[in-house]
Give the backbone structure.
Amino acid sequence: MAEKLFTEEQKGRIVEAIKEAELNTSGEIRVHIEKSCPEDVMDRAAFMFEKLKMHKTELRNGVLFYLAVKDRKFAILGDAGINIKVPEGFWDNIKETMVNHFKEGDFAGGLTKGVLMSGEQLKNHFPYQTDDVNELSDDISFGK
């Protein structure tokens, strides 16, 4: 079960990173972790994006960090509202940083850093609003 791949402390650090990142942006960030990915990683991330109802945000500015630990696959998927505003390669620097952590076996550290970096980068396009509503759960979701 994917939930057992991380300690409570690691899960707490990831959730805190989501909360901190969302203080920089009106974007909504989710993390979904599975043990393995049964298909193309982008297809699976898109499936989970919809299953988690991330496409239902008002500004279509949800971001999913998808990780399949055993298969060593991950994806960062931004919703349509983000993709029309950000330049080509927007996620590349974040992905590189995460891969460096993942190569060391530090999955929690990679996710934490990636989430924080995304909040920083998204604030230019989707700044935090004082009346911002947290539209999606900050909790990590887990697959099998």
